[in-house]
Design a protein that fits this description.
- By secondary structure, the chain is an all-alpha fold.
- 76% of the residues lie in helices and 0% in strands.
- The longest helix has 22 residues, at 37-58.
- The mean pLDDT is 84.
């Protein structure tokens, strides 16, 4: 049986669980590690499901690759908006969970999520 979506892959499902667990575990790390070890662990954890999704979709469509490219540009422009997209879209966190992970208010995360989605939509449609 052929899988239709990357989300059906067991490796993606397990890596998503790892990503969520990594975010939850690192919430208790010392504040001085926020931009060091915490950031490194979180980026690595999110990269696993993203990479598996990209490899799955590579043969089927260029859409996910375009999204990855857009996220790379967004990360350079505004890392927190990029992280919000990764957490909401790829990890599947709620606004409240994303807010806790980013150490921001839910209102801020909601605003940045909305702006980032609009920016990505424009990037992807003009590419």
């Amino acid at each position: 049986m052929r899988m239709r979506r990357y989300r059906d892959m067991r490796v993606w499902q397990l890596s998503m669980q790892l990503a969520v667990a990594s975010y939850r575990c690192t919430q208790n790390f010392p504040v001085e590690e926020r931009y060091g070890l915490t950031s490194q662990i979180r980026r690595a954890a999110v990269s696993v499901p993203l990479d598996s999704a990209v490899s799955f979709e590579k043969e089927r469509s260029g859409d996910l690759l375009a999204l990855d490219s857009g996220l790379n540009v967004l990360e350079k422009l505004d890392p927190r908006k990029c992280k919000a997209v990764e957490l909401r879209y790829f990890v599947g966190l709620s606004i409240e969970e994303t807010a806790r992970a980013l150490d921001a208010s839910p209102a801020t995360v909601k605003r940045e999520w909305t702006i980032a989605r609009a920016w990505l939509r424009r990037e992807l449609t003009t590419a």
